[in-house]
Amino acid sequence: MQAARPRPPRRGGPRRRAARGRQHHLQARFGLDDATVGPLRDLSVFYDRDEGWEFLHFSTETVGELYLEVLERRGGYRGFGAPDAPVRMAAQFALSRQASLSP
Questions:
Q1: For residues 94 and 77, what is the distance between their CA atoms, to the nearest angstrom?
Q2: Residue ranges of the domains in the chain?
Q3: What does the pLDDT look like over 54-64, one tens digit per residue?
Q4: Is 41 helix (H, G, I), strand (E, B) or coil?
């Protein structure tokens, strides 16, 4: 995942971002430390864990009607990041609304 997104997204560019309190949620839910959560936050990477296996993913900027999600499954993670779906959809809605309001 680090190789796919080696640096934070450029400032001002549209991107899917999690709510600011998301890192606190991850720390409380999974017991992650600051050293783990910091890069996830800085790189706008979503995280889920299922029975000890991990799922990391991020989305590209939306271009027209298209965006891509890049994901990494670590171990035997079987889900699709469903706990993050409402957060991802809210971020996408906010970006599309922002784009429709821009001149």
A1: 29
A2: 22-101
A3: 999 888 777 77
A4: helix
